[in-house]
Amino acid sequence: MAIDAWFSDLYERNYVLLYRVGRVFLGYDPVQETLIEDQIQETFIRAWQKRFFLKKHPNPDGWLVECFRRCLMNACRKKSREWKYRMASFDTEDSPATLDLDHLSPEDYVKTKEQIELLNRLLGKEDADIFLRYCVYGEKAATIAADMNMSEQAVRMRISRVKKKILKNRNIFTCLVCLCLIGLR
User: Fold this and answer.
1) How far apart are CA 25 and CA 43, in angstroms?
2) Residue 90 shares a structural domain with residue 142
3) Are 143 and 67 in a shared domain?
4) Domain ranges, residue 82
5) pLDDT per residue as tens digits for the range 40-92
6) 88-133: pLDDT as tens digits
7) How many CB atoms lie within 10 A of CB 33?
8) Domain identity same for 126 and 177
9) Rounded CA gap, 127 and 131, in Å?
10) In terms of domains, do 130 and 100 share one?
């Protein structure tokens, strides 16, 4: 198979996957679609630059997802820095009243209502709550255990089971990997 045909097949096979990962990462906000599209294109530009390496790679699809994740995280960090710079600026044109409030820090993307609902659907309400409190919000297992009337060891076991569940289910894995990579402390 020629390199051009191989690359076209790679693009066709993975475009929808990358778009879905981006939607899980940023939520179902129409404003973010442009950012997702831009980063998908950036990912495929990088893939084209490394096409000879990728053709021999054992998992080119996985490489694309990882590259896309990094591109998206970099774009979110850049937006966050721009927003923080504008907030600190004394210029009247960049005052907080005139800012576009769509610029959020990467951690804020995790905490959207849609993503929490998706986690509840995929993991179950109680497991999702434990996961969010422990992994995303950084609460201690002892605090969670006291609030939920269970032992600290039981909380740690639940988190371990959630990790195993994540590894077995591709949809949950994709969702949580994106959430964890931008939300863990």
Assistant:
1) 15
2) no
3) no
4) 1-104
5) 989 999 999 999 998 899 999 989 999 998 888 888 887 777 766 666 555 54
6) 555 544 444 443 434 444 444 445 666 677 777 777 888 888 877 8
7) 14
8) yes
9) 6
10) no
Distance CA 161, CA 119 (A): 15
64 and 3 in one domain? yes
Task: Say how far apart CA 22 and CA 73 lie, in whole Å.
Answer: 10
DSSP state of 102: T
Q: Residue 28 carries which side chain, given as an amino acid letter?
A: Y
- Can you tell me whether residue 59 is helix, strand or coil? coil
Q: Are 162 and 127 in contact (CB under 8 A)?
A: yes
- pTM (2 d.p.): 0.47
DSSP string, 85-143: HHHH---STTSGGGS-TT---HHHHHT-HHHHHHHHHHH-HHHHHHHIIIIIS---HHH
Burial 72-93 (b: 16+ CB within 10 A, else e): bbebbeebbeebeebeeeeeee
Q: Which strand (E) or helix (H) includes residue 118?
A: helix 113-123
Rg of the chain's alpha carbons, rounded to an integer? 19
Cα(160)–Cα(55) distance, integer angstroms: 36
Alpha carbon distance 123, 135 (integer Å): 14
Distance CA 171, CA 106 (A): 21
Q: How many CA atoms lie within 13 A of 8 on its CB side?
A: 5
Q: Using CA atoms, how far apart are residues 140 and 82, in angstroms rounded to an integer?
A: 32
Same domain, residue pair 91 and 163: no
